Amino acid sequence: MACHHCSSRAGRSRPDELTTLEALDVVAQMADLGVLEVTLIGGEAYLHEGWTEIVRAIRRRGMECTMVTGGRGMTRERARAAKDVGLMSVSVSIDGIERTHDGLRGLPGSHAAALTAMKNLVDEGLQVSANTQIGRRNRRELGAIFDQIAGAGAHSWQLQLTVAAGRVVDDPTLLLEPYQLIEVMPSIARLKPRAAELDVRIWPGNNLGYFGPYEGLLRGELPLGHRGSCGAGRTLLGVEANGAIKGCPSLPTAAYTGGNIRDASLRDIWERAEPMRFTRDSRRGELWGHCHDCYYADACLGGCSWTAHALFGRRGNNPFCHHRALALLRRGLRERIRLVDPGDRAPFEHGRFELIEETWPDDERSRADDVAAGRSLWLHDRTRT
User: Helices 142-151 and 181-189 meet at what angle, rounded to 10?
Assistant: First the structure.
């Protein structure tokens, strides 16, 4: 598939992807570095000819191994092969009801394929979870998505915002406006009691939140509890298909690659490469805009670096913040984004957006106040697509 909301522009294989032998060497280096868990992502990781060998090697070295898939082609036979080599859990992407999901994926039948993949995995004895990118088209379908994934036997549901990177830049209408978090966050919180009853863990991604009224409810049970600042290069790293090493798999390639595994050891890149270390050093001085003056600035440090950099080409100012949207609402203000430069079309790269701060229209302000206070579910909607 060539999903419209794909931040890596996945689709075709790269000419310089790691061979199976090179990937196995990376596995050994990760184990020696002390890595605890490895998640295989794509496109579709199972299209790599050595994927079962790689999973087996990860497990033999004592690391947990999981996979993320769009679900197309996850046959019963592939599910059985995954189980046989020790894959522990598979997260299937579900991004809306059937019509919305198929539209975002650019392929009729992709929604049915994803649900079939979950069934095949469960039937072969694998744990399954689900993940959803929240954007403008599916933001009011979260309850329906939850029903689907709970019915399919998911143990967890990871939620994150669609980010202004990769193929998303070709259609910015896929993105939320920052002020729409005012309705998105309570809609997630309303699902938490149902999730608890069904033993489904809601797992907010690192770009969803920050320090609004539902943080304790949504993150309180997670291993690291309430979290705000970016953990790239501190608690995680990313390996691109061609061996490029980044502090987070989502970060733009050009600005954040610390080196290539073909040129240096993983340990040397992790410990010494400057692009890997930006979260380990003092970052308070890089904050700008509303993040600079925020009450939570020292704890949050601008939240998700990927989200901010994809918008503005620099870290330190993240308008996709629930606390910030509510604070601006109390002043009668809101923020919107507008694409000003589409940039290049390389994997993981981005364009450039400008941030527009404006007064809430009179006919929308009262509705926004009602949503924020829990008296209404949805904002006035001029932007529905």
Answer: 30
What confidence tens digit (pLDDT) does each residue in 268-299 have?
999 999 999 999 988 999 999 999 999 999 99
pLDDT per residue over 37-76, tens digit each?
Answer: 999 998 899 999 999 999 999 999 999 999 999 999 999 9
Of 258, 260, 259, 261, nearest to 276 by C-alpha is: 258
The string of DSSP letters for 224-283 reads T-S--S--BTTTB-EE-TTSEEESSTTS-HHHHEEEETTTS-HHHHHHH-GGG-TTTS--
Q: How far apart are CA 331 and CA 4, in angstroms?
A: 35
Q: CB–CB of 71/101 below 8 Å? A: no
Let me know: does 176 contact 168? Beta carbons within 8 Å. Answer: no
Which amino acid is it at 304?
A: C
- State which amino acid sits at residue 199: D
Residue 175 identity (one-letter amino acid): L
Backbone angles phi, psi at 257, to 5 degrees: -75, 125
- Mean pLDDT, residues 330-341: 97
